[in-house]
Amino acid sequence: xxxRQLFVFILACIGLFSPVHAAFVTMETPxxxxxxxxxxxxxxRSLYYGxxxxxxxxxxxxxxxxxxxxxxxxxxxxxxxxxxxxxALQVQHANGDLSLNLxxxxxxxxxxxxxxxxxxxxxxxxxxxxxxxxxxxxRNVDIIETWTxxxxxxxxxxxxxxxxxxxxHIGEGDNVWLTHLHGDWAAEAFVTHEPLTRGLKTIxxxxxxxxxxxxxxxxxxxxxxxxxxxxxxxxxxxxCWSGNFEIRLNVPNNQGVHLYAGIDPQSSEYxxxxxxxxxxxxxxxxxxxxxxxxxxxxxxxxxxxxxxxxNGNAVRDIxxxxxxxxxxxxxxxxIIDMMDDIAAFGGELFVMDDGWFGSKYPRxxxxxxxxxWVVDTRKLPGGLQALTEAAKQRxxxxxxxxxxEAVNTVSELYEQHPDWALQVPGRxxxxxxxxxxxxxxxxxxxxxxFIFQLVDDLLTKxxxxxxxxxxxxxxxxxxxxxxxxxxxxxxxxxxxxGLIKVLERxxxxxxxxxxxxxxxxxxxxxxGLMPYxxxxxxxxxxxxxxRVYIQWGTSYFFPSNAMAQHIGGSPYQMTxxxxxxxxxxxxxxxxxxGIELQPKHMTNEERLQCTVALADYKALRHIIQLGNLYRLxxxxxxxxxxxxxxxxxAKQDVAALxxxxxxxAEAVLFAYSLSNFMKQAPQRIRFAGLxxxxxxxxxxxxIRVRYNHSTSTWDTGEPCSLHGKQLTGAYLxxxxxxxxxxxxxxxxxxxxxxxxx
Length: 757
Description:
Blueprint: H1 3-13, E1 17-19, E2 24-28, E3 32-37, E4 45-51, H2 56-63, E5 89-92, E6 102-111, E7 115-124, E8 129-138, E9 144-152, E10 158-170, E11 177-184, E12 187-195, E13 199-205, E14 214-222, E15 234-240, E16 245-251, E17 257-263, E18 270-272, E19 277-279, E20 282-288, H3 291-305, E21 319-321, H4 323-326, H5 332-345, E22 349-352, H6 383-393, E23 397-402, E24 406-408, H7 412-416, E25 437-439, H8 445-461, E26 465-470, H9 491-509, E27 514-517, E28 535-537, H10 544-554, E29 563-567, H11 581-588, E30 592-595, H12 604-626, E31 628-633, E32 653-660, E33 667-675, E34 684-685, E35 695-701, E36 706-708, E37 713-715, E38 726-728, H13 729-734, E39 737-738, E40 750-756
Parallel strand pairs: 21-22, 21-30, 22-23, 23-26, 26-27, 27-28, 28-29, 29-30
Antiparallel strand pairs: 1-6, 2-3, 3-4, 5-10, 6-7, 7-8, 8-9, 9-19, 9-20, 10-17, 10-18, 11-12, 11-14, 13-16, 14-15, 15-20, 16-17, 24-25, 31-32, 32-33, 33-40, 34-39, 35-38, 35-40, 36-37
């Protein structure tokens, strides 16, 4: 008996997993309901998913004898359905047969204080194949998770040709819109809204190691036409997987929308031995009648409170990262000087980025040394102990950068263990960053032990380290593993299963260390790895203007305390754009605040503004990082095609968002003017999420510093005219305010932050 079967058996024996005797089962969250038909000897059918307005009686009345409609098959397998529809599961049996006919054998419910879990066991009528379909409904948030377990008792292995985590039929017409994220390095998470047309739409990622660059594994479906921020029915979907994925949206004639999501089966057919169990990643579903904003808030709360973000309800420290300040030019004195700077600003953590390691091959650029995780004492003669001691003396914490899944061909590790890198025997290696980078073979237990030992040694020898930046800068380009069979189709899957094993070992021993998930920026912003990380690096692009857009899209699915947002330099290196320091601070303050520049190059104005920003952020971060997000005005780029036309009217490009505490007693508003034009009409901003009956006092925060000509110094500036005003929540939400973001003579990039209490 396998571990999962034994677990279910034990739970049944002690009364936690109770058999289901009724034909219909309802899975409920605070605001949603899923109704399933679990009649034994029949197909498993999904009859309803939406708000709680529908009941079992409503559904049975409407079915009117149409229970055999194939479109409601909850987990359609190849052979269960006609060829018009797509399968969620396809298995090639040992005899070559591709069909399945899965019928309900039994079902059981496990009731826990935080959730309700249903397990429906399906059996094939002909072959000894078992599929267990799970549904997990959380009691405190509107999320239902679904996944499957597949096993068999055929005499020889079977091949899993497709194995989606879940399927959802949406019985809507022609006015369903799809929202998804698309981007690339330094340009992540741009939002696309598009109507779903007839036919098949596929969203997939085949990077191998990182699945949030290009297409991301989350989507929303607006059921009432073009998506609205705070109104309309919307379904949200997030696949909790870190590897290659595929989301399919099939819209056949007059049959609604069929959504399938799971691991991408291309180059990933899985060979399943008899009596072995294959478990698909979890698929998280939510339904909102409050627009795409309601879907976002559900995912944020689920991440923070249900274990899908490590230490999800903790507020994060303010840090300075060394990378864009000094890059590889690390010396002990430069690091200590930067510690002095972040301590003077009022920060709490310093992170030493790339460039600190390497003995035989010093890490002076990105072409060598990955894998050789020993301190370069030519740069750091006192070792890490001197740095952790220096941090302690300055009353700040110390963190460090590693890239444990990669190796350079120019390294001692590669010289000793060339077979530890992913490779195709006999073929020329495809090399990545720096012309020498390879990905280590995470399917190899020896590599898994090596990476765990790296982290274990680092933290055992230097227990004062409080933070690790875990980077992953390469895709899987060499599809082969000396550790697996010579011909295998499981590498893309087994790589991530091996990575998760390592992360589980690290978290078991070091539950309190803060770990950032970085992958060439936001390449691993996904719910497959987030349970092992406290935050992720949103983007390598710190240009504040582009960050408004990147952070806006990222917020669709991820909570703000997971989003690392740093104040960058100006002019910014990637775009050469000059942006005022206040705007840079205000944009970074809307998530987990940090700094990434060389403080020695800052002006007196920049230093004072950062000091003000950090002090104000400390007083507000419990609201920003743990509050409920309301996006008020989406940023819209000015249309160049309108320039010069008689009908063209310049309009101020404004973005505004706010966070509100659960009890609605406090809120923080961020407003940004992205571009300024003469004689334009001002933007009125209507608030959201407040208590209409409360009176809120408005206080401006991170007030722009001013130059004092009489003293020739920079001083704290004066708040705007709204500071100190007291207004009802009803007025702020229905009428709103025109914020002083620009005048006829101000430059672009004006911003304001207001605290409401």
